[in-house]
Amino acid sequence: MNKQLKKGFMFTAIGVYSNFLLQLVLNMVLSRLLAPKDYGIVAVMQVFVLFFSMLIEAGMGPAIIQNKNLSNMDNRVLFNYSAIFAVLLAVAFGFFGIVLSYFYNNKIYTNLTWLFSLSIFFNGLNIVPTALLNKSKKFKSVNFSVVFGNVFGGIVGVVFAVIGCGVYALIYSSIISSIISFSWNLFFSKIRFSKSFYTDPIRSIWDFSKNQFMFNLINYFSRNSDNILIGKYLGSISLAEYNKAYQLLMMPNTLFLGIVNPVLQPVLSEYQDDIGYVRSTYLKIIHLLALFGVPLSIFLSISSKEIIFFMFGAQWESSVRPFSILALTVWIQMTLSSSGAIYQARNQSKLLLINGSITGGVLLVSIITGIILGSVNFVAYCLTIGFLLNFFIGFYMFNKYTIFCKFKRFIWEFISPFILGTIIFVCLITVNQISISSIFLSLLVKGIIFLLVIFFYIVSTNEKENIKLILKK
Questions:
Q1: Which of 30, 151, 294, 371 has its Cβ near the most Cβ atoms within 10 Å?
Q2: Torsion of CA 122, 127, 132, 135, to 10 degrees
Q3: Counting beta carbons within 10 angstroms of the beta carbon of residue 275, is it exposed (0 to 12), middle (13 to 18) or buried (19 or more)?
């Protein structure tokens, strides 16, 4: 693992973990100040904010990183185009509130979409500056922009929640975060608008960009159709309860993949034809992700009640069951989601699209089945099955066509993590037999046991040497 990867991981870790702590504290505070209904409304909004942001980006960011022939003027012209798309889609999102108000039978969306359109606009402007900083491997600047944006956005959100602004507190927080993040990246990337307009830059990134965009589109609907359908057919309160569970589910992905994925493509894209190097690097990373992901899945599932109550309060009790079910998929999502960066680094956006189409279809069928069965818990059960199927489907294709690794060899990386996960399971189930009245104390005891078991397992097995070797090379 070369110096660029190490440096990238270090600065990305600083950004991801500090941002995680900020978001965690903000979430814990706002969950006690705002009602589940407010969160349900914003959860619906965020689904479509992501969709419009994805339309603006259109795969441009990864395409800029992968293309090594773009000149400074080309980048400025692409910045022009991104600004035009940002304006058009921000306005479109404002009017989209009429559709949301009709679909969810709530007129509040008519006003909220115009406010949220500001966030979409600045996120659209941020695409080219962020891509250029990542391409130049200036991971420090990229991650600090997110940190400072979320600090000021969090402060604004809490202030507005305290003075009783309700759902608007979350929206103002998002707007401030996007403005500060864009301003920071614009300053450090030194990109400026150009008076020139020509199509050559768009053409040069089109093949990669269109496949990346289609993958993002499919991935978006497969990942967000649960929120859309639950909000429509099971109500905003059910959506809020489900969304809280899913938020927690995605935190491990943020903590681990938030460090790995932004670094892998910019660095490994320089080795796209050296399959041996890409394969050996990825197998080391996948082993580490599994080593922490499998036992973490067990811990989160068994400690679901303590985690929900401690972080959000007893009013979110209905989120406990879906979280305990979905938590068992954490290791799958951590490992499977990391493959996208390798597809990009190997310049295989078409294969990424094919893989995403298949796995996205599986998730969509799983979600619809759960909705038909009629409860958030059924959605969680069906999604768990869908994620497991996708693990085998997605990684079979990935190993065969991208890193050219035998599937048996790949699965071998998961043997030790599952042994550790089994030990964690036995220990935590044993602790559950002890009556501990305090939620915090119960979570503390389980957390200490979880960390101790991992520590002693690593130091008493070959994992200690494996980790030292990975960090050393």
A1: 294
A2: 140
A3: middle
